[in-house]
């Protein structure tokens, strides 16, 4: 096309866009040929409809979904009569789409200020998933995820966090988040439907709604969650039972408990006897022998109750509630001087405090999810980070030399 024809075409384009809607909100490309009208049917009052002037060619390159939508002969294709090219996306979130469009059009000044908040990140990832545009935000995804995790104050946002982990391709975090949800799951009564319970003051949430909110998983999730919940409760009971029964049934002639070595981390049977309330600690004294003995009796009664009562396995107690019950019950135990880590209380904290129980049940429930999809996302993230900055020190050097990270892909992606 010669220069004269190109100028004529460009003039026609500008003329056509002069009649664009007056409430155009954000111009991603001043020479853009397409207007996206977004969020017109959203019921959320905080998500006001927005219009975006964009370049259709950019969307075609960045998104296979937009490529088919805009250039595949569908209703959203460019009008042949020369009228404004306006495409309505009634159910998309304007705030999330704005970030994706800003990144794809190199309008980095329009990216959100850090720290990123959970709601906006979920909106962004939802848009990326719908239009297959995750690559567009990969340079920032790592630090956005860190912002959300660092600002977290409770686990009541677990459904959103699990969804973010899924859309981000973070399998490790996904297993933990789903596991934490199951740790807070109960039944209103035996054989009733599963309920997510975050404790006093929080609304209970049926697991059917949880599954809808997560947006992934298999059709037999309810059964898998029920089995996982019971498995965790049994693990907790078995651990406490082993610690208590092993100490109570100590055989001083063999130095073994049920065929294993003494529970004291230094293999000192006197430590075990003192914690069990059988004898004072030699040469140092343990004044609260009776206290330990009474604590043992209470724990033994609790184990008998929870082990025999079907409600503990298929009823109103959540695994996290059971953990807290035993945490409070085990706390009074006193260990001899220099043997604090031998206390059943310390061992219980080690057993439940590292998140391994949540990851275990999460892995059990999510064994059938599409791992290929998540692996592909992780590989793309890694390649993007490597392209953006060869090392953390290089990013730091750039910041020191320029003093400005506002528009720097590399430093922004490294979270500086």
What does this structure look like?
It is a single chain. Strands 1-3-2-4 form a four-stranded mixed beta sheet. The chain has a three-stranded antiparallel beta sheet with strand order 5-6-7. Residues 1-22, 252-260 and 404-416 have low confidence and may be disordered. β8 (256-257) and β9 form a beta hairpin. The chain has three domains: 3-153, 2-Layer Sandwich (Potassium Channel Kv1.1, Chain A); 221-365, no CATH class; 371-413, no CATH class. It has 19 helices and nine strands. With 416 residues, it is an alpha/beta fold. Helices cover 55% and strands 7% of the residues. InterPro entries: SKP1/BTB/POZ_sf.
Briefly, what is this?
With 416 residues, this protein is α/β, with parallel strands linked by helices. It contains 19 helices and nine strands.
Calculate the terminal CA-CA distance, rounded to whole Å.
46 Å
Q: What class would the helix/strand composition place it in?
A: alpha/beta
Largest sheet: spatial strand order? 1-3-2-4
Which fold name corresponds to the CATH topology of the largest domain? Potassium Channel Kv1.1, Chain A
Number of strands: 9
By CATH reckoning, the class of the largest domain would read: Alpha Beta
Helical proportion? 40-55%
Please describe the biggest sheet, giving its number of strands, its sense, and whether it closes into a barrel.
4 strands, mixed
The radius of gyration computed from the alpha-carbon positions, rounded to a whole number of angstroms, is: 29 Å
């Amino acid at each position: 096309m010669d220069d004269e024809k190109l100028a004529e075409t460009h003039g026609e384009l500008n003329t056509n866009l002069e009649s664009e809607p007056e409430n155009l909100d954000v111009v991603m490309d001043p020479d853009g040929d397409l207007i996206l009208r977004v969020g017109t049917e959203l019921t959320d009052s905080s998500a006001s409809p927005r219009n975006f002037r964009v370049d259709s060619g950019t969307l075609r390159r960045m998104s296979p979904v937009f490529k088919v939508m805009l250039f595949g002969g569908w209703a959203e294709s460019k009008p042949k009569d020369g009228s404004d090219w306006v495409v309505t996306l009634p159910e998309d979130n304007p705030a999330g789409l704005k970030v994706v469009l800003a990144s794809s059009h190199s309008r980095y000044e329009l990216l959100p200020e850090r720290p990123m908040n959970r709601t906006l990140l979920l909106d962004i990832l939802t848009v990326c998933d719908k239009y297959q545009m995750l690559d567009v935000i990969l340079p920032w995804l790592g630090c956005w995820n860190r912002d959300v995790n660092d600002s977290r104050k409770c686990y009541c946002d677990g459904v959103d966090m699990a969804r973010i982990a899924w859309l981000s391709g973070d399998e490790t975090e996904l297993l933990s988040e789903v596991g934490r949800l199951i740790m807070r799951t109960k039944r209103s009564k035996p054989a009733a439907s599963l309920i997510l319970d975050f404790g006093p003051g929080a609304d209970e949430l049926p697991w059917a709604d949880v599954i809808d909110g997560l947006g992934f998983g298999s059709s037999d999730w309810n059964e898998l969650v029920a089995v996982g919940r019971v498995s965790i409760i049994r693990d907790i009971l078995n651990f406490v039972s082993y610690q208590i029964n092993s100490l109570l049934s100590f055989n001083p002639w063999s130095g073994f408990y049920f065929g294993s070595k003494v529970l004291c981390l230094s293999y000192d049977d006197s430590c075990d006897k003192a914690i069990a309330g059988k004898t004072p600690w030699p040469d140092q004294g343990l004044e609260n022998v009776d206290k330990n003995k009474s604590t043992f009796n209470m724990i033994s009664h609790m184990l008998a109750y929870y082990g025999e009562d079907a409600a503990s396995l298929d009823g109103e107690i959540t695994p996290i509630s059971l953990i807290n019950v035993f945490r409070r019950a085990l706390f009074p135990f006193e260990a001899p001087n220099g043997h604090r880590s031998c206390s059943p209380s310390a061992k219980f904290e080690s057993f439940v405090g590292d998140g391994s129980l949540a990851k275990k049940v999460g892995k059990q429930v999510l064994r059938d999810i599409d791992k290929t999809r998540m692996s592909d996302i992780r590989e793309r993230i890694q390649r993007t980070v490597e392209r953006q900055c060869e090392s953390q020190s290089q990013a730091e050097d750039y910041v020191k030399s320029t003093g400005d990270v506002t528009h720097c892909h590399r430093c922004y992606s490294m979270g500086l």
